[in-house]
Amino acid sequence: MSVVLRRGGVQDVRFLRDMLHHAYDWKERLPGAGPGPVQLYVKAWGRPGDTAVIAIEDGFPVGAGWYRLFTRERPGFGFVDEATPELAIAVVPSRRGRGIGGALLTALVDRARAEGHPGLSLCVDRRNEGAISVYRRHGFEPVSEQGSSLTMRVALA
Questions:
Q1: List of residues 6+ apart from 48 with CB closer than 8 A
Q2: Does residue 123 contact residue 85 with C-beta atoms inside 8 Å?
Q3: What does the pLDDT read at residue 36?
Q4: pTM to 2 decimals?
Q5: What residues contact 112, with CB distance under 8 A and at least 6 apart?
Q6: Which CATH number characterizes residue 13's domain?
Q7: Closest C-alpha among 147, 10, 24, 129 to residue 86
Q8: Residue 2 DSSP label
Q9: Residues pairing with 122 in the sheet
């Protein structure tokens, strides 16, 4: 794998936004359904606790993983508590199955541990067995289910 990981920043917001559609196969939100994914996971990027890693292959971004803290009043889809950042991760479809997602996940877990976070959480479709398997290999365990969504958490402390 000739992929390089680099720290993400404000300059990557457009790519993070694009990657949300790959991560969740999201359609645009329904009217009255609350804030959409871009508003939750990307808008005003650079808040305290926002951390991103970008996978680059042959000079082009091919994947991204990031996490951010949420509040009980404005939770993410995989919210556990206010001390646990929620992560999102995606790899462009043509580059999946090559270990890029696992490398991004490892980098994020390491960074969150170094920053002193007690854990990381995420939300995944219960039918996405491939992703769930990757998350389990990295220590994530289910903590709740709602509809077709599964919230998972890994303890870091």
A1: 69
A2: no
A3: 59
A4: 0.88
A5: 51, 67, 85, 119, 120, 156
A6: 3.40.630.30
A7: 24
A8: -
A9: 152
